[in-house]
Sequence to fold (345 residues):
Amino acid sequence: MRLPKVAQDRAPLDRASAGDALQTVETSVKGKWRHVPALHVNGYAIVAKGGWLRRAVIHDEEWLETALGDPEACIERLKGRAGRALKTDIFTFAQRVPDTAPKFPYMRELESIAVCHVTTFRDWWEALPQESRKNARRAQKRGVAVSVRELDDEFVRGIVEVNNDSPVRQGVPFVHHGKTHEQVWKDQSSWLKQSDFICAYLGDELVGFLKLVYGRDTASVLQLLPKASRYDVRPTNALIAKAVERCAEKGIPYFIYGHYSYGNQGATSLMEFKARNGFKEMFVPRYYVPLTLRGRLGLAVGLHHELVGRLPRSAVRLGVAIRSRWYDSRLSSGRCSSTSERPKS
Fold:
């Protein structure tokens, strides 16, 4: 039986009132949806994040079709009565690929983005290392079929199975593990008009999917989730290849897979995977504008970075390893996992 659809394209804002009053926006926090206060400026929703040093950020900034073009309007509103109700100290926003030259006079830092410059599928394929081409061919030889499909009940049932395949992903509890059919439908219902779902099947079994969100000149990975127990059929390589093919068909030159490097973590297995599949590091300016005295002081001493960004690289790696082993030990008391079921951290 078909479930009632939640909003097919969730509007950026649920407007509670007009004028200068704060509104609300629905956002997912650690896999759970909730409404949070938001300031609406020229079609953008600005929400607050952080603890002692609170940051005003553009809600879902990386999935919007265009970057913020008038930061002064946002800064003015944030310093006004409604903006002060958010209780933020810093306003931060970034330019978008491929716009890498700084455009604004505020304090800025370079943000690392993983970008695959797509011309034709053949150019991308021929530039790949032999190992990556071998893995993509291996998926095909082992029976993996990749296609683009719409969100429907059958597909959602497949996603539920993929979510429940492993309770841990990348060394931490997987927030989507154990979700119901209705919850998964809600999770996947955002940005539908500007998205593609690329699915990898082994027979009738969904062994992985990739949600691709399109901007003006970009296509960005919102979620890439292979079935951990089907690692041997290499669904991830097949999904990436299909996404590149899709970008080439649509004439989209920039395929984005999140950040290239994360804080002080250094080289990771995820970074290596991106590099092997044609992604390169591109830097875009991220701006920081103080709104309060606390914000100015925080920026001066570097408190706008999370703790992991201020720790030495060796300490970050040690912490990641300890965290992964701790979660693995918690799970091992309840069930046994083969090596192929444990995602790399």
Q: What stands out?
A: The chain is about 30% helix and 25% strand. The longest helix spans residues 313-332. The radius of gyration is 21 Å. Residues 1-19, 333-345 have pLDDT under 50 and may be disordered.
